Automatic annotation (TrEMBL):
InterPro entries in the cross-refs: Carb_Esterase_6, SASA, SGNH_hydro_sf
Secretion signal, residue range per the UniProt entry: 1-21
Superkingdom of origin organism: Bacteria
GO molecular function: hydrolase activity, acting on ester bonds
Species of the source: Hymenobacter taeanensis
SUPFAM superfamilies, per database record: SGNH hydrolase (SSF52266)
Domain Sialate O-acetylesterase: 41-276
Name of this chain's protein: Sialate O-acetylesterase
Amino acid sequence: MIYKALVFLLLLTALAPQVQAQNLQPVVRKLQAPPARKEKFQLYLLVGQSNMAGRGQVEAQDTATNPRVLRLNKAGQWELAQDPLHFDKPTAGVGPGLTFGRDMAALDPSVVVGLIPCAVGGSGIDVWQPGAYFPDTQVKPYDEALDRARLAMQQGRLAGIIWHQGETDCTPEKSAAYQQKLRDMIARFRQDLQAPTVPFVAGQLPAFQFTTPGPKGKPQPSPDLTRINRALVQLKHDVGHYEYISTEGTHDRGDQLHFDAAAARLLGHRYAQAMRKLQQSGRSRSH
């Protein structure tokens, strides 16, 4: 019996690093004061559902901190940003937000970036309006995002919004109305936050979701997913200071629904590139 117990303990010790790597979470969250000058604190609102919140597996690179990338935590305090950024569900993991924040900080060394995580897994676009309640997580997504953004804006300047959502709206009835609802939501955020020209970047849905049999049995995106992705493209024609990013080349984590960590980081880079493009074009128009 003693021999078996020793073997079990040795096996447990050998496997411990692997188990820890699979469930790596930040142990310590360090509070950090933002810069005193509001113009030096650029704020970004992260909204949408689970693929913005992130469901990728957290690795060591996702817990490394940067003193110029902060996160507004659930309690409304600023801290050094680490994944998971979001707290909508216990399954929150790696999303695009942290990579996006790091890239935006690298693009302008003179500023500190403040990330405002507000995505809610499973939330359809209908709950992203004033007063709407989402029973799954017992929150009002739009109202709470406004509250958190306004709190952050007491110390910084809203520099952009990134949005990834649409999976819940992949039905014939909902996808047909998606374009108008998203257009209205963008206008509402800008009006309620008194930021009429704040850049807004939306992410398309990935091809691995909601597939249907195509020619020779090869899977292809469903008509509803295709309709939502087309809507995101078409919004460029009638919404100012707006851009979208592609999800081409991304992979799921094995559930055909959520991006894996590598894909989430890739999207973070794409969000930053699109955001920078909008910010630069906005500055050129203002001169």
